[in-house]
Design a protein that fits this description.
The structure is a single chain. This protein has one domain. The protein contains one helix and six strands, in the order βββββαβ. Strand 3 and strand 4 form a beta hairpin. It is globular.
Length: 105
């Protein structure tokens, strides 16, 4: 697994075209406390070229289910499942490695 080093300020990712995004979504609970819906929040950095997306999670709050991506992990997924991982994504990850922002864990 590749992840962004703990000593790196995630704002550095903006130099590589990443955009900081805050998502607020409903939790997956079937029953809600006090009759109200609960939400979880994700703060992440995202790079999307229309074919693939790279997400690097900064923080998640109030989540009630297990997520695939962990904090600071480099998570790549395809927007179009028939396209595979584009050269652009490999190049971005390579640039992050060259800038010494990434470690293998």
């Amino acid at each position: 697994m590749l992840k962004i080093k703990d000593n790196v300020n995630l704002k550095e990712l903006e130099k590589f075209g990443f955009i900081k995004e805050i998502k607020k979504e409903k939790t997956h609970k079937y029953k809600y406390r006090n009759g109200e819906e609960d939400y979880y929040t994700e703060i992440l950095y995202k790079y999307d070229n229309g074919i693939n997306t790279i997400e690097i999670l900064e923080r998640r709050k109030n989540s009630d289910w297990r997520h695939i991506n962990q904090e600071r992990e480099i998570y790549v997924y395809e927007s179009d499942y028939e396209m595979g991982i584009s050269k652009d994504m490999i190049s971005i990850i390579y640039d992050l490695i060259q800038a010494k922002l990434v470690e293998k864990v």
